[in-house]
Each structure stands twice: as structure tokens, then as C-alpha cells.
Amino acid sequence: MATVLILDFGSQYTQLIARRVREAKVYCEIHPFSVAEDEIRAMAPAAIILSGGPSSVYDEGAPSPAPVIYQLGVPILGICYGMGILAVAGGGVVARADHREYGHAELEVEINDDLFAGFARGESSTVWMSHADRLEELPPGWEVIARSTNSPLAALRNEAARQWAVQFHPEVVHSPRGREILANFLFRICGLTADWDMESYVETAVRRIRERVGDAQVVCGISGGVDSSVTAALIEKAVPGQLTCVFVDNGLLRKDEAAQVCRMLEPHFGKDFVFVDASRRFLDALAGVEDPERKRKIIGRVFIEVFEEEALKPRPGRAAASFLGQGTLYPDVIESVSVNGPSATIKSHHNVGGLPELMNLGLVEPLRELFKDEVRAAGAVLGLPADLLGRHPFPGPGLAVRLLGPIDEPSLALLREADAIFIDEIRHAGLYDEIWQAFAVLLPVRTVGVQGDGRTYDQVVALRAIVSEDGMTADWYRFPPQVLARSASRIANEVAGVNRVVYDISTKPPATVEWE
Ligand code: XMP
């Protein structure tokens, strides 16, 4: 199978380039720009894409690729910083612009080139720019194929050297025709065929897991969500009989959730599936705690204790585990290496961050390159139940961050009922799959109401439903009014102790998805 090599120069969009290449059904691998020459030769890529990056090509120690990439004779596409790399390597002049160009620009194709097949000459299309360096002088042998509002040199080619370069980012959604441009590069310029799919991804992931794990044992925490289930299913497929999946009920799950998850996953994992009811331990440790970050820390700590105990329990015929399977997704990776640095911890999402070091385990993270929808597709290939794959994300600390104020069991029970009614109404209206995440929150305030002839002084439930690409930004979901009306009326009537229901219309930012 032909491989496209994507060299990563540190752009936050590198994984998006990979995603677009995968969408075009072509196999690709991302490697750091510094990957060794031998490795590149061994890979024998059919094409190379150079990503963008935060550096300037003239910075001291600016990242640059091994010169072997120019000797392979395969087509190269440089994007943004990658354009600077190609230009400087070809003898062009790049300078730091006074202002960073950031945002939409109009691109106009100047000459017919395969990269813009399907674009008429002079036709304008929107592209996304994000750069500070600017090419000032064209390297010899290069010509301009498109210009943009602010860059006379927006896209270039050197046909003889089989190199193309674009100043803008074709991989982001803000370049609506970017996919076409990338597909033109892959198919017209490189002559590749669309012969790669999620089944091939699963095969490759399985092979890599086998190579990494060998005949060692792996443990994997299962939350009942998509990411951990798909991770475990991949490991199970790669090294059957060497996996122990541990599903911990922390007492903060939704209504009937523990039973549902066991029903969905036990048949798939058989004796490799272990269920632990540790709800008492978690709830005791949380008694009286109000502060959201303290709640998360306690839940993380107790989880590690419970998980470690289970993972260390001797299992007949099995050695102790040496690896931990984790369902880290690409958006988790970017959130954790965010340019804002460690000072910008908004919420400590990574509840079990210290686990691998603590238990001295190697990590297996087969989903690190994928986005959520790709994980769902991989899960379908692995034969996981559709119900499970379509589930909304649910935070590790569970209902603890949806029950504002101190946690007690009656409030948890009340929240579970309200949440179940809301989800039931959403499913009933056929809207579940349109929504990224929907849930109820129990507020620590009482308001006055009237029921029958009497005054009530009861609690408020807030409903939240959002649409999102990856959870990093979100918009509130526009429900048909009757869905909210039915949910509110059922909650106030069926859940004793609640007399008022409100709908949260905050976006992220400035709010977050969860209330705590
Ligand atoms: P926020 O509230 O940060 O949520 O906008 C973004 C996404 O992350 C989930 N979330 C968490 N997931 N542990 C998790 O595993 C956490 O502590 C946590 N806090 C929020 C949230 O449900 C949403 O999908």
C-alpha cells in the first residue's frame, strides 16, 4: 500500500492533514520533522506533505527535514511553514511579515495546474491563512499558480522538481475547497489510488499493538464510553487472552448505566471483562466535598486505587500486566500540548494522568491519531454494538460534576431521574444522534413554586444539550420547543423535589460544557 509521509513541524493542524488524507482513502503516517533519513528511506513514501508550524524558517534551530526527502523523486507538498521550507531549500527568500495574517482570504487561480483541477482560472474561493513568514522572492524554477488577497504568492509549483507549496491551510474546514486541493495532490499529481479504509486502519493498529505488546499482559479501564471500548476491542483483537478490562462503577454513573454497560460489553470481552462495584468507596470519599477540582482529584485518586487493586489481582494462568491501554484521542493530545501551557488548566480532565508511572506500565494508545467520528467507525469495524458507539461522551467524574454542591445519595437519585427523562425525550424525538452531548444538572438553589393549592420550595434542574466538533468549542442545541416543553413538564411532575427546569443557552467559550 502506498504511504504518504506527513512531516510534522508542530502545527496544530497536522492531524487534520492526516485526517483529510485518510478521508481520501489513502494511507498516511505522521512523523516528526526530525525523523531519521534511514527511516524515511525504509518507509519508501509515495508522496510527502510538509505541515505548517509555529517557527520561522530563519529562527535559530528552526526545524528542517532530512535532505533525503528531496532525493527520493516523489512529489512534495509544503503547507505554510512547509512552503517556507521548500522555498528556502530552493533558494527563495522568506521574511517575517510585520503582521501575522490570520483568517479568511480569497484565493484566485492564476494558471491551470493539477493542484487546482476543477477550479476555473480567475475563479475565487475562500481559504484559511495563518502565517507570519512571507515569501518575498520566488526561488528559481518556481512559478506562481495562485494568488490571494494578501499574498501574491499563495500557491506555487516547481514542476521539474515535483514540488508544490501553498501558503494557506487546505486541511481546515475554513478552506471549503481544501479537500479538493489535497485530493488533487494525492490523485492527479501523485497518481495514488483510493484503496485504504477503516478496515485497513484497524489492521494496522492491531499489527502495531502486537509489535509493542508481544506476549505481555495489558490492562485497560473501561468507562462504558466509545473511546475506552474501542481501545479495548482493538487490544483484544490484537492479543486475545492477554487483556483484562476493568469497568469500575464509581457510584456516579447515570440511571441503570452499570447494568447496561455490562450487558453491552460482557459478550464482546467474555472472561477478559471485570466489573467492580466501588460506589461505596467513592461516595464515602466524596462526602461533603463541594469544590469541583477537589471532587475530580478525589475521584481520580480513588479510581487509581481501585484500578490498581484489580489490575494487580493475580489471574489464573496470567502474568502481571506490563501495559495500560488508554483511549486517548487526538483532541486530548492537542488539549494537553496546548500553546497556552500548563498555566491554562481549565479543568483537570485527565483524571488518571499519573496511573502509568505509578504502576510502572507502558502505554498503549491506539486511538491517538483519530477523531471521535473515526473512532466510532473503527468500533463498527470491530463489531461493537451500535448503541454503544453512538453514546454521548460522559465525563470521568460522572454525575459528581453535574450535581453542584456537596454530593449525597438522594440528590444523585434525583439527578439520575431527571437526566433519564431528558434523554428519553430526546430519543423519542429522534434527535439523539444529532446532539453531541445532552444531560441534566442539579443546581444547589431552591425556588418557590406552586403545586395543587400548595406552595413548594424545591430544587432547579438545568438541561444542557450541545453540538460540537470535538468538545473544544460548542454551541447550544436548538430544540424544537415541544421537546423542551415535554422534558420540563415531565421532570417537574415526575421527579419529587424539583419544581423548576431551565435550559442552558451558553456556548463554549465563554462557558464550558459541564457546569463544574
Ligand atoms: P468542558 O466542560 O471542559 O468539557 O467544556 C469538554 C468535554 O470534556 C468532558 N469533560 C470531562 N471528561 N473528565 C473527563 O473524562 C473530566 O473531568 C471532564 N470534564 C469535562 C465533557 O463532558 C465534555 O465532553
What does this 3D model show about the protein?
The chain is globular. It is built from 16 helices and 18 strands. It has 516 residues and is of the alpha/beta class. Helix 6 crosses helix 7 (226-238), helix 9 runs antiparallel to helix 10 (292-312) and helix 15 packs antiparallel against helix 16. The longest helix has 21 residues, at 292-312. The protein has 3 domains: 3-189, Class I glutamine amidotransferase (GATase) domain (Rossmann fold); 198-389, Rossmann fold, CATH 3.40.50.620; 408-503, GMP Synthetase, Chain A, domain 3, CATH 3.30.300.10. It binds xanthosine-5'-monophosphate. Xanthosine-5'-monophosphate is lined by residues 296, 347, 349, 351, 393, 395-397, 437, 471, 508, 512-514.
- How helical, in percent, are the residues? 25-40%
Number of domains: 3
How much of the sequence lies in strands comes to 15-25%
Structural class: alpha/beta
Return residue spans where pLDDT drops below 50 for at least 5 consecutive residues. 338-345
CATH homologous superfamily label of the largest domain: HUPs
Ligands, deduplicated: xanthosine-5'-monophosphate
Output mean pLDDT.
92
Strand order of the largest sheet: 2-1-3-4-9-8-7-5-6
**How large is the count of helical segments?**
16
According to DSSP, the number of beta strands is 18
| CATH 2nd-level architecture of the largest domain | 3-Layer(aba) Sandwich
User: What distance separates the N and C termini?
Assistant: 47 Å
